[in-house]
Amino acid sequence: MIGAGPAGLMAGGQAASAGAQTLILEKMKLPGRKLGITGKGRCNLTNRSDVADSIAHFGKTGSFLRQAFARFFNEDLMALLVDLGVELVTQRGGRVFPASGRATDVVRALERWARSCGAQIRLQSTVSEVLIQDGSVVGVVCGGKKTSCAAVILATGGASYPKTGSTGDGYAFAAAAGHTVVPIRPALVPLETAGDEREGAKLEGAKLEGLTLRNIKARMFVDGKKVAEEFGELLFTSFGISGPVVLTLSGEAASALEEGRKVELSVDLKSALDERKLDGRLVRDITSRGKEDMASLVRGLVPRELVGVCLRQSGIPPDRKVCTVSAPERRRLLTWLKDFRLEVTRARPISEAIVTAGGVATGEVFPKTMESRLIRGLYVVGEVLDIQADTGGYNLQAAFSTGWIAGRAAAVRALISTEG
């Protein structure tokens, strides 16, 4: 086992419990470093949605996970963790967390479990090479020394948050073994936006840093065509935007930007009202609040931080009396409230991504066992595979599920090899 993250600990525990001599090699000082910071340290470890819905969250490669989810899924994971003493809670959207709100509780429980199953975890042990002979795994090189084995599971994670040990090692091992590695890119990552350059303004995002918009609808446009839509929260940062809706849309945005295409995010600040109802409200407000300044009226429609942005981009002076606003100006205000545009210039670096998109092509891996179709005894799990979902606990469930079946399959191969 290379890697002691969620997939590696699960695979190691399963392999050891099946009777195979199991060694988990982890290059960091502690296991599960990235798992320990997921969900801002709270660990959204799975989602209670059914198999079909979960698979849909993975897009075009989701069907690859059908057999893994059929054998080990959310209820199985939850039951295991409860047996290990980790109390769980289910929150909005079916997201499951440890009741303590501490991801480290999950890490410690899985580590204890893997060791109790008989797995040996060797920390600060960096693997430099997977040894292959005649199309089969024969060992690994770690610290300059060769360790012979009949099976190796690549559970090294992706290339995001490199300080936790996720530096893309698994992709290199797989490529060296002859696998196709779909180019990696950031997914579930904040996005940088261009600012309003008029009047020498700084980045719009910088002015709005810290503002959270709730219950908004965000639509992503690529070269003027709407390609995706999400509902929820958006957060303005010093460089642009983040938050659940942005993270969900970011993978597609990053891919489009790499292709040199224009990406825009349209924010509907009044998603509960269609244009006709919103226009009716504006007309009533203009009629009843005619003596007020426009800044005062708009403050009743959007957060304080957005008032100046709204009026500037709508072309309406903030000190204009409400009663003097023309029908075309009212229409521009309406359009802005329903279609506040932000130009996306680039995704943040992959080191800041929650998930790495791309990885080992799923067509080169047996979905029933996670074993390579090219190299006997080589197994690929978790984020090393070209599978990635949006937020909600789906990615961690995929890591646990693929680790579970790989551990059991690798144990069978190792035991057969030992008997032979």
Keywords:
420 residues, alpha+beta, FAD/NAD(P)-binding domain, 2 domains, six-stranded antiparallel beta barrel, three-stranded antiparallel sheet, 14 helices, elongated
Description:
The protein has helices spanning 6-17, 38-41, 51-56, 66-71, 74-83, 103-117, 169-176, 204-207, 244-258, 275-288, 294-299, 304-314, 327-338, 394-419, and strands spanning 23-25, 46-47, 88-91, 95-98, 120-122, 127-133, 136-142, 145-148, 152-154, 181-187, 191-193, 212-222, 225-236, 240-242, 263-268, 340-347, 355-360, 378-380. The chain has 420 residues and is of the alpha+beta class.
Portion of residues in beta strands equals: 15-25%
Note the gap between the termini.
Answer: 21 Å
Q: What fold name stands as the CATH topology of the largest domain?
A: FAD/NAD(P)-binding domain
Task: Report the strand count.
Answer: 18
Helical fraction equals 25-40%
CATH superfamily of the largest domain: FAD/NAD(P)-binding domain
Q: What is the domain tally?
A: 2
Shape: elongated
Give a quick precis of the structure.
By secondary structure, the chain is α+β, with helices and mostly antiparallel strands. It folds into two domains: 6-185 and 356-419, 3-Layer(bba) Sandwich (FAD/NAD(P)-binding domain); 191-347, no CATH class. The chain is 35% helix and 23% strand.
